[in-house]
Amino acid sequence: MQTLLISDLRPAYKKVNFISNFDLVGRLILFFRVHGCEIFLFSTPNGFFAISKDDVIGSDWNDRVGDLLLKKNISPAICVFEDDNIDKFFQLSISYKKPVVVLSSNNMPLGVLYYENVMAFLNGYSMPTRVSGISTPFGVFFSNGIAKGGLSDIKLFLTGSLFSFFAILIFLTGDIFFEVAKYLFGDAENLTTSALAVVLPLAFFLILIKFTRLSKLHGAEHKVAHAIESGDILSAYSANSYSRVHKRCGTNLLILVLLLQIMVIYINPILAIVIALFIWRFLGNKVQYYITTTEPEEKDLMNAILAGRDFMKNYYNATVNKVRLDPFKKIYNLGILQILGGYFFTILTLNFLAWGLLWFGILPKDYYQLFRLFL
Asked: Which fold has domain 6-123?
């Protein structure tokens, strides 16, 4: 059997991007936002350096790239030559979990190899680069529209039902906080009273999540999602090496909504939108790290890994068999319809029961109106 060389992977090479040591970090950050890939630095005495998105987090926009290398203690990029055995790439990629630079015989970079692109090239099908996940008390669910895995439709439906009770509790808690804030700060129209009535209930329940198993499942879900999107092997050792913070987490969207609600109250709406859009992801990542996710235990990580493997099996079958899905089926695979179904079914059921109790004179009209708010 012929041994595969790095040169056999040429169709999987990605473009090499260069940047000067004297460029500003701000240019790096803008480049990541536009292209979302690694930038490799050419340095004659020390070889090649690769800077990722994580390396520029917390850096000043006016810092020099050369200073960033020193401050972050960034090591030289890992490299292979075109005449190396392909096994060398896998050893380096799995050990360091970084892209690998391919060099020519005269040490010139020819391209960059990413693990997921190599696996897709060798297997003859594309790897999922984006996957959405949902953490619930029943377990973890993964999907990308083409395939889904993990929780069954029934458990997604029950998740929606639980969410309806959660929404009602938040509303009731908000009403309590509003009365407390009104008592402490005076007039009910006071801006501080309104803001506290919005923020405190959500903050209260987010903190409650921190001390439940759901935060551990949430952290496990993010780790496995990173592994899937990186094309990595779904094992406890591999998945646990990834971050429990994910840039597309719903927590970030929640923080954006809260920021807009609060800032529109206190400052100019247009300025509020600009500020909120600039800092929402940073704050969302912090809330994820400190509140909505926790380092998972082994059983939580395995729950997410099994869901990830189920998703990958279904994704592989759909891809290899070239299954074509209509738009409705793709939306259905995301699990949104099942969750919304559980939510509205529960709310409608509660409304029907409330209407019956109201008709018999058991339930006051004010409480009946409460349930109607969620339709």
From this structure: CBS-domain (3.10.580)
